[in-house]
Amino acid sequence: MSAAFAVGNLTGILDIRVEDAVLTAELQAGSEEAFALLIAQYHAPVYSLVSRLLNDVGDAPDITQDVFIKVFRGIRNFHGDSSLRTWIYRIALHEASNQRRWWSRHRGREVTIEDQTDARGEDGPSYSFCLKDILVDKQASPFEMAAHEEIRAKVESELRKLPEPFRTVVVLRDLEGMAYEEIAEILGAQLGTVKSRLVRGRTMLRQQLAEFVAQTQQRPIVSSQRTAWEPKQDKRRSTCEEAG
Question: Are 22 and 37 in contact (CB under 8 A)?
Answer without folding.
Answer: no
